Amino acid sequence: MIKLTNIKTFALAGLIVIGLFAQSKNVHAAGLETLTVAGGCFWCVEADFEKVKGVQGAISGFAGGTVENPTYKQVTGGGTGHYEAVQITFDSGVVSANALLDLFFRSIDPTDAGGQFCDRGNSYRTAVFATGAQESAAQKAKADAQAALGQKIVTPILGASQFWPAEAYHQDYYKSSKLVITRFGPKKQASAYKAYRDACGRDARVKQLWGSQAPFAG
Questions:
Q1: Taking a C-beta distance cutoff of 8 angstroms, is the pair 64, 127 a contact?
Q2: What amino acid positions are annotated as catalytic residues?
Q3: What is the helix (H) or strand (E) element at residue 203, kind and residue range?
Q4: How far apart are CA 202 and CA 207, in angstroms?
Q5: In sequence order, what are the residues at sequence separation of 6 or more whose Cβ sits closer than 8 angstroms to the Cβ of residue 168?
Q6: Domain ranges of the chain
Q7: Which class would CATH give 31-171?
Q8: Which mean pLDDT values do the consecutive 10-residue runs of the chain (218 residues) have?
């Protein structure tokens, strides 16, 4: 009888452990959120945020426009209203939306309403697409960034928008080994990306604005 009781006790304990493990997995899964931001060239924003602990991945794409499933050529050609945007998936148990938004404002030039760095035009403007708690967090991050910078920030906080992923060749461009033709001849995409980022002056301008607060500028 004692042995049977012990077996039941062990079995019950095992079921409790399994239940807690399953509950933990569900809570972890439920902690995944997305945040959509526009910060100029989406390759650069994707590259920056995929370095952040707690970020599960980032997708380059388009948001804020009126055309369904637009192509890169359509967006950069103008008339669709889209921004180059990045949808960031993150574990809110590791990194919060507030923290990501603080990083975002310090990784761009939020004083520039006409584009970002060497990329000019509507598709390269900055924005945060958010509603509810994320919108409140974005407004606070914007106010905090403006106070820290001491300059007017023009990056708008817009409502939620349909996000359309860009073509496959834009994804993970910054680390791809595929060959592309550049004005300097054939280069791996990762090398072409670095050359573009340096020539565009992104990191230099961000460091000029934010100094030691710039989280990604090398």
A1: yes
A2: 41
A3: helix 202-210
A4: 9
A5: none
A6: 31-171
A7: alpha beta
A8: 42 40 43 97 98 98 97 96 98 98 98 98 98 97 98 97 97 95 87 96 98 93
